[in-house]
């Protein structure tokens, strides 16, 4: 009889311990957020990582906006140079998302008809900063 009570008590303790561990190990589910990325680099690796982050964030349910500024508008050249960047850009644009590019920066590079991004303004950059919960620069 004592042995049965001991076995039952031990079983209850083990079950409670396992249940407590499963609660602790479950990651907290975060609600989606909005992410603004300002890319001002023309470094292939930096741009590739920014685009990877953008696509990963979208897969997590976040809203992602990208603005190209300064050397960042050279993305069109990088797409031609790097298969990996081309793939990341295509993935980002696939669902109707768009990439904004500084109109002044594009025009200074004689690119008045960009293919990868849409001609945008300082007002669009300001809106990206104001409307997104998180803004990162690359």
**How far is it from the N-terminal to the C-terminal residue, by CA?**
69 Å
Spatial order of the strands forming the largest sheet: 4-3-2-1-5
Q: How much helical structure, as a percent, in the residues? A: 40-55%
> Which architecture name does CATH use?
3-Layer(aba) Sandwich
Determine the number of helices (DSSP H or I, runs of at least 4 residues). Answer: 6
User: CATH superfamily, called what?
Assistant: DsrEFH-like
- Summing up helix and strand content along with how strands pair, one would put the structural category as alpha/beta
Strand percent estimate = 15-25%
Would you give an account of this structure?
- With 138 residues, this protein is of the alpha/beta class.
- The chain has one domain: DsrEFH-like (Hypothetical Protein Ychn, Chain: A, 3-Layer(aba) Sandwich).
- Helix content is 54%, strand content 17%.
- It has six helices and five strands.
- Strands 4-3-2-1-5 form a five-stranded parallel β-sheet, with helices on both faces.
- β3, α5 and β4 form a beta-alpha-beta unit.
- The longest helix has 24 residues.
- The radius of gyration is 24 Å and the shape is elongated.
Secondary-structure map:
Blueprint: H1 2-25, E1 34-39, H2 44-59, E2 63-68, H3 75-81, H4 83-93, E3 99-102, H5 103-108, E4 118-120, H6 122-131, E5 134-137
Parallel strand pairs: 1-2, 1-5, 2-3, 3-4
Helix pairs in contact: 2-4, 3-4
Key features of this structure:
138 residues, alpha/beta, Hypothetical Protein Ychn, Chain: A, 6 helices, elongated
């Amino acid at each position: 009889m004592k042995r049965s009570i001991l076995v039952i008590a031990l079983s209850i303790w083990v079950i409670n311990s396992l249940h407590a561990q499963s609660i602790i190990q479950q990651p907290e589910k975060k609600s989606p957020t909005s992410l603004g990325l300002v890319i001002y680099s023309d470094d292939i690796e930096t741009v590739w990582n920014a685009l990877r982050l953008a696509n990963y964030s979208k897969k997590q349910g976040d809203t992602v906006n990208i603005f190209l500024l300064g050397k960042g508008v050279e993305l069109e050249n990088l797409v031609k140079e790097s298969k990996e960047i081309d793939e990341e850009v295509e993935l980002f644009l696939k669902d109707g998302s768009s990439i904004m590019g500084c109109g002044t920066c594009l025009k200074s590079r004689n690119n008045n008809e960009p293919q990868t991004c849409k001609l945008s303004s300082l007002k669009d950059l300001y809106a990206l900063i104001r409307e997104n919960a998180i803004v990162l620069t690359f």
